[in-house]
């Protein structure tokens, strides 16, 4: 059986793609090239379907949520706050899994930030 090798891309609709791309670059350090290619560091990826009525993604209209691995969650959240980003106050710790925080991008997409254990 053939198997997928990993996430090959993540695509989102944007009212202003250039501005949203700049936000991801300037606030999260996602340094994609002009074609959107981004060389990420190796590490785990979670693929997990959620119940249709979950509130975990924020807005019920949001069908998926992007999760980024980070080295230092507290430093990343502080960096985002200092840039005026909409950062959730809550931080969640899951024993053996890691720490989680959330930010909402300028177009309303809730993003999860994960510092693996």
Characterise the protein shown here.
With 117 residues, the chain is of the alpha+beta class. It has a single domain (17-116), classed as 2,3-Dihydroxybiphenyl 1,2-Dioxygenase, domain 1 (Roll). The chain is built from two helices and five strands, in the order H-E-H-E-E-E-E. It has helices at residues 17-28, 73-82; strands spanning 66-69, 86-87, 92-94, 98-104, 110-116. Strands 1, 2, 3, 4 and 5 form a five-stranded mixed β-sheet that branches.
Q: What's the architecture, going by CATH?
A: Roll
Taken from the alpha-carbon principal axes, the silhouette is globular
User: How big a fraction of the residues is strand?
Assistant: 15-25%
**Cα-atom radius of gyration:** 15 Å
- Determine the CATH topology: 2,3-Dihydroxybiphenyl 1,2-Dioxygenase, domain 1
Q: CATH superfamily assignment?
A: 2,3-Dihydroxybiphenyl 1,2-Dioxygenase, domain 1
Largest sheet: 5 strands, mixed
Number of strands: 5
- Global mean pLDDT: 93
CA-to-CA gap between the ends? 32 Å
- What is the helix content? 10-25%
Total separate domains: 1
Class per helix and strand makeup: alpha+beta
CATH class wording? Alpha Beta
SSE arrangement, N to C: HEHEEEE
Please count the helical segments.
2
Low-pLDDT runs of 5+ residues are none
């Amino acid at each position: 059986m053939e198997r997928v090798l990993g996430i090959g891309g993540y695509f989102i609709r944007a009212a202003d793609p250039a501005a949203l791309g700049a936000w991801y670059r300037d606030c999260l350090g996602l340094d994609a090239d002009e074609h959107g290619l981004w060389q990420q560091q190796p590490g785990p990826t979670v693929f997990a379907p959620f119940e249709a009525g979950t509130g975990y993604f924020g807005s019920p209209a949001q069908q998926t949520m992007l999760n980024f691995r980070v080295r230092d969650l507290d430093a990343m959240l502080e960096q985002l706050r200092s840039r005026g980003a909409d950062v959730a106050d809550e931080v969640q710790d899951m024993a053996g899994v890691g720490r989680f925080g959330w930010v909402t991008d300028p177009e309303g997409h809730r993003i999860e930030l994960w510092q693996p254990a």
